[in-house]
UniProtKB/TrEMBL annotation, chains A, B:
Ranges for domain Glutamine amidotransferase type-2: 2-217
Superkingdom as given in the UniProt entry: Bacteria
InterPro entries per record: GATase_2_dom, GFAT, GFAT_N, GlmS/AgaS_SIS, GlmS/FrlB_SIS, Ntn_hydrolases_N, SIS_dom, SIS_dom_sf
Name recorded for this polypeptide: Glutamine--fructose-6-phosphate aminotransferase [isomerizing]
Domain SIS span(s) in chain numbering: 285-424, 457-598
HAMAP family reported in the protein's UniProt record: GlmS
Cellular-component GO terms for this entry: cytosol
Gene: glmS
PROSITE patterns: GATASE_TYPE_2, SIS
One of the record's GO molecular function terms: carbohydrate derivative binding
Oligomeric and partner information: Homodimer.
Length: 608, 608
């Protein structure tokens, strides 16, 4: 995720672009940059760090001009640095490009261009676009972009300007958001509506495979094949704050709904011929991967809960024994680590202090560390021996949602890759699992569709100060995450239990009317789970059940039921966590609390 | 633990003995028996099973006579069976003996007697006493008993009668309780006061190394060396219900106070020349013990918390990687088990359904199973490949206390034994640790001595519905147990957290005035723990701290502090759990709840 803006009109572009970027900082904030056409040439300024660093640099050297594009970055290819910042330009600085998304075939294109003598000054996929445009340049910006796009695979939104066409800006969208703001004698492009709301409320929302050619006085829409497109203009009624949240009331709800995309992005480029292939990212050889005899997952909070799923995934798929540790405990307990131990640390921000300390401790003890993180260039990404990125984009709400599901996807990819290399699963099994992985975004979408039932669940629990979640096996790990979500933002003291363990003490707390949220997606232990539900029902609990579509059994034993799409048992957590995230969200709203910034908590815990 | 009674007087002995045994059933209930002098010979009836089985047997064949002894058994040496039941007799049925305790040198005595031609019909240590008495018989019951006692090592209370002396009963006490009830023309012996309260309130309490010679009309007390003893008579004012609880208001409090003895009994006979030696009990060879490459602890509830300590003990002392699982999860998660995996199951009752199922699952997968249990002859004791008994005696209160500390002791013994065999600790280190183990009963006694401070803590939490426990490392495992105790009997929703993990979400629940109970006994992480305490203090928590004697630091950061005796870091759980058990107890009492039988719970969970 990144934010892009563009301006063409009678005013000074620089400040309009900077204001726009400020509204898009939630989309990324590790570096920012501008390219402005000064009438003769393209001036570029770009800086690592928050937008303030760019503003400071521009303070002494402003970029004059009335046409320009800007970018705020969330690193994907290449760490945060001045060089990797956008806009990117070709060698002669004829083209300037801002880009949001991923060019999946950029390595191939890069090799091709390098062979022709192009040199690259950054590690990004975006720079490849600038050189590709230069290579294909036919004297016309629009047709050149159209031809370049034909060569590009992936997901992207682009803004492009050319030194020879000071009255024109071209924008393209494929699977990354892009809008065109239509003003009076001035026009705009942006990743999102808030960036242009100060100037106009008239907007065209581009669709996939569409392209806009924008001048001061006009906007024309085409398909990337050149067919004209008619589009109704949207008149935005949102206020600026709502707009920043993409129309959602809170960042958390927005991020919950971004999960299908986050999952797609995290899967992208990692499946070849129907099978998971991480050989481009993980440098451990087959011999080294075969030599691993123990794996430790180490993480905190929500990422720890992803690690619990990791244990099941790796043990079932690759039959390597796994331990899962809370990072603050791991580093002080003198864990048994050998050179054949792989330590997997999981951290959205890549800066979690306890997790980082554990990573260093593990390396000191001689283990290789695989980092799973959402932030390119973060400490975890830099210090881990191997890195598997999640591509969830920036997460603003303190309560993590899309980072968690993306971590699960990274873990599935890793588990399937290990199973492939170690030969613990047949090719047919791997293909079947991989196919199902690719169906998850749609299933998550489906699970998101029945918010009304969950709102009603929220009404039923909102006045309780205590409640319990129960589940068995993978469902237990999922309800631990569901319970943490609820605690974080509703301040209800909820606790998650392995359903079979409740009777060994905590059942004493089950009294008339106490809500129990019971997850029952695992068919092999379904009957046992129903028995545990009957135990709490017998003590008067009000049971809200979550089952798979088609359930006829659980429905008989619980007070209310919500169903989610069926998938492979190992993948159910990705789908099952959705209603639990929504439940936490709607309960927090119903209790009138600050959903995105709960009391006492910080997004990234950089202290021990 | 077992219960013994004896009667001499004008009435029929049988019913008086049976009534007495009924009052002592809390001391054991796996079998019972009587020996009554019918004027000519000693009649014996004994039956496996509860007292009702004996009563049924006697219903058709009553034992006439006015002198007799009786016993209700809690198996130690030898499984519950008719043969192993007491009373035991010699080959000619001249002597009948009931015994509570352990004869530590019984194997040696047995060999000696076997060499002389004595044959044994049971597996017990007690039968050895009967044959020893026969072997030493000099025509006088009293001097024969005196001479026999000189040969016996261990802890015991005995009641003995002889066919040639129909007017006399002899009782001896060494470290197991025994009282003499003094009536009008009739006298009694018993393990505990409730057994005789229907007949008299006048009692002599025997002390260690004392012997009573009892006739219808008189009681004479001597040392076992034959010196006369003067003892003041005790006039019991307790009612029968209080008496059954040894003067404590509840079984739980009684059992909490029995922990020094339970620890001593569990250590007894397992330390040779200052070092732990389990070779008599564990049949795994040094080669087999050296071949173990992974250990799984599997248990439920409180025993699971003992398993968490087990992980630290085994990993630190013997450097074998350990996983700890809740039994209801373990059996269904397809754990990775190889022939070099040792599975350790922990269950007080030895009948916990989930634990038993896990044991069978592990054996099916090819692992050896070590059972740690408190009940000889239980399913775990019978089915496990290796058994390490805890000697806590019967636990009546649903909330487990002395079983837990005894399980910890068994685990320490096992860890030290492994470290010895595998050479991961020097002899000096093993000796130092073993010496410290032997000091634990006294330290637990010390921790029990300041109940007033804990009562005051209980007053401070009793009106809260939610609270948290925090700790790091071993302290985390201990607060999990402390929290479970509180939940079970006070119905307060308490939750235990690894102190460093709280900030990753649950800190949102910390608000003004909420109690947080913080355990800080581990010196290497003490400063980190203080930081976590300051985090919750800053959010308004009311912090009750538990530190080690001599603490000057924690005191500054918390609202109240309770200190416990210092010991080795690995052993602190045994001492640190004491105030937490007392806190749960006094809070339950302050809330007016049923301490010994909390709602919804059963003592031994024999369903899944």
């Amino acid at each position: 995720m990144c934010g892009i803006v563009g301006y063409i009109g009678p005013k000074a572009a620089q400040n309009i672009l900077l204001e726009g970027l400020r509204k898009l900082e939630y989309r990324g904030y590790d570096s920012a940059g501008l390219a402005v056409h000064n009438g003769e040439k393209l001036d570029v300024e770009k800086k690592e760090g928050p937008l303030a660093s760019l503003e400071e640099a521009l303070g002494s050297h402003p970029l004059p001009g009335q046409l320009g594009i800007g970018h705020t970055r969330w690193a994907t290819h290449g760490k945060p640095s001045d060089e990797n910042s956008h806009p990117h330009v070709d060698a002669k600085q004829q083209f300037a490009v801002v880009h949001n998304g991923i060019i999946e075939n950029y390595l191939e294109l890069k090799e091709e261009l390098a062979a022709k003598g192009y040199t690259f000054s950054s590690e990004t996929d975006t720079e490849v676009i600038a050189h590709l445009l230069a290579d294909l340049y036919d004297g016309d910006l629009v047709s050149t972009v159209r031809n370049a796009v034909k060569r590009m695979e992936g997901a992207y939104a682009l803004g492009v300007i050319h030194v020879q066409e000071p009255d024109k800006m071209v924008a393209v969208r494929l699977a990354s958001p892009l809008i065109v703001g239509v003003g009076e004698g001035e026009n705009f492009i942006a990743s999102d509506i808030p960036a242009i709301l100060d100037h106009t409320r008239n907007v065209y929302v581009l669709e996939d495979g569409e392209m806009a050619v924008i001048t001061r006085d006009g906007v024309e829409l085409f398909t990337t094949d050149g067919e004209p497109v008619q589009r109704e203009m949207l008149h935005v009624k949102w206020d600026a704050v709502t707009a920043e949240k993409g129309g959602y009331e809170h960042f958390m709800l927005k991020e919950i709904h971004e999960q299908p995309k986050a999952i797609r992005d995290t899967l992208a480029g990692r499946i070849k011929e129907g099978i998971v292939d991480l050989s481009q990212e993980i440098s451990l050889t087959a011999e080294e991967l075969n030599g691993i005899d123990r794996i430790h997952f180490v993480a905190c909070g929500t990422a720890y809960h992803a690690g619990l799923i990791g244990k099941a995934v790796v043990e079932r798929l690759a039959r390597i024994p796994v331990e899962v540790d809370v990072a603050s405990e791991y580093r002080y307990r003198n864990p048994i680590i050998t050179p054949s131990t792989l330590v997997v640390v999981v951290s959205q921000s890549g800066e979690t202090a306890d997790t980082l300390a554990a990573l260093r401790e593990a390396q000191k003890a001689g283990a290789k560390v695989l980092g799973i993180t959402n932030v390119v260039g973060s400490s975890v990404a830099r210090e881990a021996d191997e890195v598997l990125m999640t591509w969830a984009g920036p997460e603003i709400a303190v309560a993590s949602t899309k980072a968690y599901t993306s971590q699960l996807i990274a873990i599935y990819l890793f588990g399937l890759y290990l199973a492939r290399i170690r030969g613990t699963r047949s090719e047919a099994q791997l293909k079947e699992a991989t196919e199902e992985l690719l169906r998850l975004p749609e299933k998550v979408d489906n699970a998101l569709s029945d918010a009304d039932t969950i709102k009603q669940f929220a009404e039923q629990i909102k006045n309780h100060d205590n409640l319990f979640f129960i589940g068995r096996g993978l469902d237990h790990a999922v309800v631990m995450e569901g319970s943490l979500k609820l605690k974080e933002i509703s301040y209800i003291h909820s606790e998650a239990y392995a359903a079979g363990e409740l009777k060994h003490g905590t059942l004493a707390l089950i009294e008339e009317g106490i809500p129990v949220i019971a997850l029952a997606t695992q068919q092999d232990i379904f009957d046992k789970m129903v028995s545990n539900i009957i135990e709490v029902k017998a003590r008067g609990a009000h049971v809200l059940g979550l089952a798979q579509d088609g359930d006829t059994e659980l429905t008989k034993s619980v007070d209310e039921v919500f169903t989610i799409p069926q998938t492979l048992p190992l993948f159910t957590p990705v789908v099952a966590v959705i209603p639990l995230q929504l439940l936490a969200y709607y309960t927090s709203v119903a209790r009138g609390l600050n959903v995105d910034k709960p009391r006492n908590l910080a997004k990234s815990v950089t202290v021990e």
